[in-house]
Design brief:
Number of helices: 13
Helix content: 25-40%
Largest sheet: 6 strands, parallel
Structural class: alpha/beta
Length: 369
Amino acid sequence: MISNTGKLAGRTLFITGASRGIGKSIALKAAKDGANVVLAAVNEAVSKFGGIDIVVNNASAISLTPTLDTDMKRYDLMNNINTRGTFLVSKACIPFLKKSSNPHILNLSPPLSMKPKWFQSNLAYTLSKYGMSMCAMGMAEEFKNDGIAVNALWPKTAIHTAAIEMLTGGEGFNVSRKADIMADAAYVIFCKDSKSITGRFCIDETILREEGITDFTPYACNPEWKDKLMLDFFLDEEDFQSKSHTVFDPTKKPTQNSKDLNVIFSAIRANLSADLVRKTTAIYQFNITGDNPGTWFLDLKTGNGALEKGKPSQAADAILTMEANNFFDMFSGKLKPATAFMMGKLKIDGNLQVAMKLEKLMSSLKSKL
């Protein structure tokens, strides 16, 4: 882990969204170094501390919903906090950053990728996060001659936050790292000469490896799972294939044949019950692609439940689209829906939370396959 050196002592850091999670960890790391940490009111910060040296745009709103399920109030919230908020806070602070001897702006946003899979299931959220990334890219060039470093930072793996717990149905601890890794990576960036690092889309682990860190076990929430961490949203596993960047990818399995899927279907039918219907009350549609394409539906809303080929007679609450091998792994307990979704291996249309309810059924089938 990265030790504090005191290089930020006396410097003033303005950060948004620092009440919990990654923002709180970054703020505490800077404060431990002796920095003045400000959570609001730019002018008051300047009046009290004489200027601003570092800006962290961390505040973010998230709603992983497809276009037709995204109401405009939620769309506006994400864009106002993520894109507009980043632009506005940076704009307000830049006049003071120009007077700093080592000014930095750091946006907590992902590297830009134009792959459709990052847009198909949650377009509104992706637009808002990419807006933050484009602010970093544009401002880095715009204020390069002023010596202001503008970069983006994103985690390689899932970070144990409230958002991850929501996505994984409370099962995110084992597959996540602590927010400390993001705080350490941000600290490394802040300590660098602003003229030497700007316009970069930084990944936390990569930044720390550049500093000589090779043991990332202390950052794992559960050290026993350090080699089975979930790759974070917006990152492609093919970008992390070297031995030093091992990330568990449970979707990398040999393609299952139709007989395997029939085993899954039989196990699901054997576990249907009125009690399961009462606890779930939802209809699922599975669009299976790949070598054995087909459409199936699981009715957990009426009677004792049913699994049939084709589309349901009434609208499905959640439509899950995936390749056959991923379907097999999900229902045999080898792959969590949240993991598949975040890695772009599973497309969900409809109610995301309803889709995640399937995880308990999937876990119950594991011992029967």
